[in-house]
Amino acid sequence: MDGASDPYAAYREAFFDRSYDDYAATVAPKWLTANDAAGDFVREHFAMPGADAAVDKALRLDSTVMLVDDPVKRVDNMTMAWGLEARTPFLDYRLVELSARVPAQFKLPDGGKQVLKEAARRVIPSEVIDRKKGYFPVPGLKHLQGDTLNWVRELLLDPSQDRGLFNPAMLDRLLTDPQGQLTPLRGSKLWQLAALNLWLSEQGI
C-alpha cells in the first residue's frame, strides 16, 4: 500500500475477502443491501483527518477497529474463559503512540516492522525475529473434507437451520465443489457460511 494513489482501492485489494458482488450472489434477495456497507465504512474511515499516507490510514483502521473487535477480543475471551488474564505488551499506549509517529516508509522494509525488528535484534536472537509468522490455525478455513465437510453439509442443509439467508443456487455450487470455492484471501466460502449459521444457532437467532 505504500505510496498508493488510491488508498481505499489498495486496501480493498489487499484485505477484502469478499466483494459486494460476491455477497449479493450469496445471500437471498431479501437480505441484499442497497449499497456496499463495508466499502462505505472503509472509505469514510480513510477520509477522516489525522492519517495522510495510505499505510497510516490502514494501520489506524486496523488498530481502532479490526484489532479491537477481532484478535484482542478473541484472546481476552479465551483466556478469561479459563480464569487467565492475558497481557499484550505491544498494545501499551506509549508504544502505540510512538509507533504511530514513525514515518510510513520505515514500517514496511525488511518484510514489515523494520524499526521494531532492528531494535529487538539487540536483545532477541535473529532466528526468533525472522521465523515464519504463526497464526490461529483452523483447517476448515482453507480445507473442508471428511467429517468436517459432512458436518458442514448437515448444518447447512438441515431444514431446521434454514433461515432463508442464503441463495440456494450459490449454496448448491459451494457444496458441489467445496475445495474449489475459495475467497481472494484463500479462505473457504463454504466454511464462512457454516460458521455464520452455527453462530446464529448458538445465539438463538
From TrEMBL:
Swiss-Prot/TrEMBL keywords: Ligase
GO molecular function: asparagine synthase (glutamine-hydrolyzing) activity
The keyword Glycoprotein appears for this protein: no
Reaction(s) the record says it catalyses: L-aspartate + L-glutamine + ATP + H2O = L-asparagine + L-glutamate + AMP + diphosphate + H(+)
Enzyme Commission number(s): 6.3.5.4
Cited Pfam families: Asn_synthase
Gene Ontology biological process terms in this record: asparagine biosynthetic process
Pathway(s) annotated for this protein in UniProt: Amino-acid biosynthesis; L-asparagine biosynthesis; L-asparagine from L-aspartate (L-Gln route): step 1/1
PANTHER family referenced in this protein's UniProt entry, alphabetically: ASPARAGINE SYNTHETASE, ASPARAGINE SYNTHETASE (GLUTAMINE-HYDROLYZING)
Protein name: asparagine synthase (glutamine-hydrolyzing)
Organism, as annotated: Pseudomonas fluorescens
